[in-house]
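Hello,

Our lab assistant flagged a job as stuck in the queue for most of the afternoon. It eventually completed. Since we weren't sure the result was trustworthy after the delay, we are filing this so someone can double-check. Below is the sequence as submitted and the structure that was eventually returned. Let us know if re-running is recommended.
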Amino acid sequence: MSKNGFSLGLALAFTSLASTAASYAPDGRSNAMGNIGVATADYLVAPLYNPALLAVFHKSDDIGILLPALGVNAKDADSSLETITDLQDDAENLNMGSSQSDLNKMNQYLDDLEGNKPVSITAGVAFAVAIPSNNVSVSIYGRGYVEAIANVGVAENTGDNYIDVEARYRNTNVIVTGFAYTEFGVALAKKYTIYGESFSFGVTPKYQILQTYSDISNVDDFDLELENADTEVTAFNVDLGAVWIKNNYRVALAVKDVLAQEIKSTTPGLYTYEMNPQATLGLAYAEEYFTFGVDVDLTEQTRYVELEDNTQFVRVGVEVNAWHWAQLRAGFEHDLQDTMEDSLTAGIGISPFGTLNLDVAGSYGSDNQVGASASLSFTF
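-- returned structure --
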């Protein structure tokens, strides 16, 4: 048998300027804090979480630039990628003279792949330019991400001789289904005093591009890449947000993607990807050197209808700020739908002179569910 190679690559391409449609945001600060942000996000990344926070800023803030923010999450519950790699390595040297032990080992790899949960990888990017103001704060931003899901279809075991094992290997296929999402928007927010209480309200009209990708290949040629979208849908949508601020306490509500969207892949999986409205409640205590927050999804996020991979998170995060020069962050998130494993998150920030901000984060759910992100921003 020959091996054409196994490579894992995800490319994000946007003609101008890729967790899940309503909530996934590659932001090093919030990702480190358990992916909270509805009540705690900085004004520069407010459109990614809650547009109302765009109007919550310091008097010294005049303009902010986020360029870029990058992130990736991966879930491989049954270690399928590792098994495929081992399978291909052994298949490269298999021939008519192979020992029975080697043939049995090949069959065992294929048995191990049978019935495995799909492999899921998400990667994203974001940018923003924000101008806070006591009149109306404005942000121009874009974000995008791509999700790739791989399912292995293992051929029937008909025997343990070379001909049967080779036929089983050649007839084992991998179906890759991908979803790519891009949005560009203008977030607007303003503070109000109502009956002596401080409120901020925000709205984000935005343009969305939804794309699906499909591919089927023999396990020998498996290459997780997304090329040439088979379906594309464009739409206009809107996000809404509000936050009530009382001293150092905040209560916030964000509704992402008010208008539900749906896109169907054409081949080979015929999956339906849904983006339903996502409402999230945020609670926070935020002062100059310490922030603590909790985000609770009030609605489920459907995603792939046929895969039953709904998510609904409860998230907790904390940040300690060392004189605005360095930050330590940690968090935890739990999926009420049990699609994703519980994850611990952590990260650091470096912000010399309060102008250059570098934030990095990592998450760990298990050896088979990990993530990382980083963002670079400038505030003046």
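-- support follow-up --
The delay was a queue issue, not a problem with the job. The result is valid. The two ends are 60 Å apart (CA to CA). The longest strand covers residues 173-194.
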